[in-house]
């Protein structure tokens, strides 16, 4: 199983419309990917290491897929559509990490 994480860096001038992302962008992704998407989780940054530090990421979304091949096959046809929607919710570029999930 793999996890695709998209991390949106926080910083001066960062704009991120959480309501748009949660209510429009992510449902569009879920509908487009269909059964290939096992689950999705949205994390909204609230603080950093110290209580007065801002979170290093304004938002992080995690998407679970059975395999890298499943992710690539399901996401590829919609990549341009998803990218075209980014300016509707943020002015920063998300960082993507694809990870293998290892049970301990």
UniProtKB/TrEMBL annotation:
Residues 18-90 form the EthD domain. InterPro entries: Dimeric_a/b-barrel, EthD_dom. GO terms for molecular function: oxidoreductase activity. Pfam families: EthD. It comes from the Bacteria. SUPFAM superfamilies: Dimeric alpha+beta barrel (SSF54909). Gene3D superfamilies: 3.30.70.100. PANTHER family: BLR8190 PROTEIN. NCBIfam families: EthD family reductase. This is Uncharacterized protein (TIGR02118 family). It comes from Aquimarina intermedia.
